[in-house]
Amino acid sequence: MKTVKISSFLKERKIKLKPQAANCSGLQRIEKIDFSGKIYLSPVQTNTDMILVKSGDLVISGINVEKGALAIYTGEEDVLASIHYSAYEFDAEKIDIDYLKWFLKSNIFRKLLLKQTGSGIKKEIKAKHLLPIEIQLPSLKQQHEIVQQIQGVANYIEEVNRQIQQQAKYAEMLRQSILQQAVEGKLCEQDPNDEPASVLLEKIKAEKERLISEKKIKKQKSLPPISEEEKPFALPKGWEWCRLGEICQFVGGFAYKSNRYSKRSSNLIIRLGNVKNDRLLTEINPVYIDDVYANETDQYKINIDDILVTMTGTRGKRDYFYSHCITADDLSSYNLFLNQRVGCLRSIALILPAYLVKFLKSQTILVYIFATETGTANQGNIGSGNIMMIPLPIAPLKEQRRIVEKIDALFLLCDEFEHNISEAQRFSTQLMEAVLQEAFSVQEATKSAQVIEFHPDQTTPETELLAAARGKIREDTWEHLRKRALEIANEES
Description:
CATH architecture of the largest domain: Alpha-Beta Complex
Low-confidence stretches: 443-474
CATH superfamily of the largest domain: DNA methylase specificity domains
Strand order of the largest sheet: 2-10-7-8
């Protein structure tokens, strides 16, 4: 095994074109190279300097090379690429490009690069950083063998990751199934001794009228009765349909003026990006106001049990109408105030806020509300009037409590499931790094390249998340890689 500089088998192609020359050439440009090594071309003109890429060149992304963003351009016509890429002629008698690709994704390369640049892969990699690096280069025959063995493991890890992604989809589907069962009254058994929801709604109506007469809340427009066509399913005995506006007040947000923002204070504005499902992200781009401005806009102050909903997002993508019920913990550090396009639902009485916020996340509600979506080609909006019109299944109060408890218990199991999925994702990444570590560690020149040994006839159990990999890797090799993965994880932490 020889120690060589990367420049011994790569030579940078240094032909650069100014924007005018590049646009007049009529050549396509490289839009991106994905992490699988696929090149995407675009005819879009440029307003920046470009480099020329010829057929057979190795093209490397200076930003994402460690993720696999490199490829050989095989087209017949020359193409252009931005200066964030670099193009190289390479000596196929010295280097297997797939070997180089895997090497550039390894921790060994990252450490060598850090010595070269002093800032690692966060710095955009240019030819001046890459070419002087010295590496241990085995023979071309050994390179081919190593690539074949790495690719075998990579194929199985890819299958594992596909299974992991599928499991992640199942986790979300499971949550939605739980919510849908709850909404339809199928999650908990009904108790005939529970006070029916019809009585509950009459009590809420009376309380609402009292608050209006005492001028504590404003009288709202009457809402139309719910038609049979609006009822997507039959409810259990003791349940009732009602519109959200019958049991909640809606408070819209305020367009806080940026010129009145202050330095860090105890008064925090809650904007669209701060609200996700069941999460209040106060650390994301926080914006504060002083006590004077807070007093002026006191009617937009957020209280415990308020349900926040985001009302603007990307049209057609359902990346909004997130909801979160405010807790005492949310108010422990700041006074919170509603910004525009963040709505607030306040239950009038006798309805559990935890029950409401869970039902707002169900497919029944989401299908209804997003059918009312308006806006531009890119921006979607949900109106307060449509939110108040939502048909909502109401359970007896005692059953509401049982439903909330049951959902919380089942969601804890979902949380555990998703944690296991996340751990599996982390481990698959560490496993691949362990494989690369073994492949590119310095070997004796006389030793044959050997990364992984396979048992192709071994049956793989389908129930295990990592079975696709474990079933094909010799047990002692698997154990060795497992230890290396843990070592790498400890080193990175």
